[in-house]
User: Which sequence fits this backbone?
């Protein structure tokens, strides 16, 4: 056999090995390019979806950090079934022009590929990355409006109550707090939905990294909801107090945005402290799981 023929064998083997991977990747991009592209545009252009710019690379990093299980157990039939479900969801959501399920279909198909190549155990190993990817998909507009309005009203009620505790004469009408000579509007952007989404992701991340017990993880994630509501109500109170007694500029613009960031830092500190308390509880309650 000639030297050329000998050296071409490894190259042919490499091509044969990588061809299925390349073909699968190309097919995935062709099928799911639209949901992927629109999701990227939302991350870049929609403030309500900007958290995806952080969650997506973080999810990939956590999956890489967890790595692959030592012994892979491919489950071809289950994997193909999940891929087929993702493709079917992609087609039906395209007909209905529903972006959330269209984007969700890409995650379902990607999960199917993982199961096909490495098995269901590997998919469970990457549960935290999957949850973060799910949170990176913007909430549908219909659901967003349904959730935002009650949050607006709750923030307005709590803010008005706190202002009344300071012996200020206030009157609440829906999402408007009236005071003689002033009216403070609690807009949809101040509903706290953005901070709630960010805190849910933060609670999920802290629970997934620091805790081992499912019940304590669920408790930490559930705790993000009252923390977000309480701090957003406090933000409305602080805004109203500063607008009335310091400067009306605190009601909008850079100063108002700064208040939101300060409140998020406070929420982060509270969740970090709660996580540390739960870690100590876990060490006392289930020392074997905590040490795992």
Assistant:
């Amino acid at each position: 056999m000639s030297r050329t023929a000998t050296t071409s064998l490894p190259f042919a083997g490499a091509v044969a090995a990588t061809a299925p991977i390349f073909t699968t990747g190309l097919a995935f991009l062709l099928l799911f390019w639209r949901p992927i592209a629109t999701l990227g545009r939302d991350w870049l252009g929609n403030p309500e979806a900007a958290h995806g710019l952080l969650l997506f690379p973080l999810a990939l990093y956590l999956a890489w950090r967890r790595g692959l299980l030592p012994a892979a157990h491919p489950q071809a039939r289950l994997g193909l079934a999940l891929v087929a479900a993702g493709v079917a969801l992609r087609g039906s959501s395209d007909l209905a022009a529903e972006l959330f399920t269209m984007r969700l279909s890409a995650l379902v198909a990607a999960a199917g590929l993982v199961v096909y190549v490495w098995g269901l155990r590997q998919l469970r190993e990457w549960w935290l990355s999957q949850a973060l990817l799910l949170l990176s998909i913007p909430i549908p507009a219909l659901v967003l409006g349904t959730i935002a309005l009650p949050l607006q009203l709750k923030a307005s009620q709590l803010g008005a109550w706190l202002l009344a505790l300071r012996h200020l004469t206030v009157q609440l009408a829906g999402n408007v707090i009236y005071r003689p000579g002033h009216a403070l509007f609690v807009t949809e952007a101040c509903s706290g939905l953005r901070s709630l989404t960010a805190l849910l992701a933060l609670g999920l991340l802290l629970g997934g990294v620091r805790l081992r017990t499912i019940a304590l993880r669920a408790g930490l994630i559930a705790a993000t909801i009252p923390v977000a509501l309480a701090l957003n109500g406090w933000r409305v109170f602080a805004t109203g107090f500063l607008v009335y007694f310091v400067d009306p500029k605190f009601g909008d613009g850079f100063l108002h945005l700064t208040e939101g960031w300060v409140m998020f830092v406070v929420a982060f500190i509270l969740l970090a402290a709660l996580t540390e308390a739960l870690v100590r509880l876990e060490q006392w309650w289930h020392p074997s799981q905590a040490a795992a």
Summary: The CA atoms of residues 12 and 18 lie 10 Å apart. The first strand starts at residue 171 and ends at 173. Residues 142-291 form one domain.
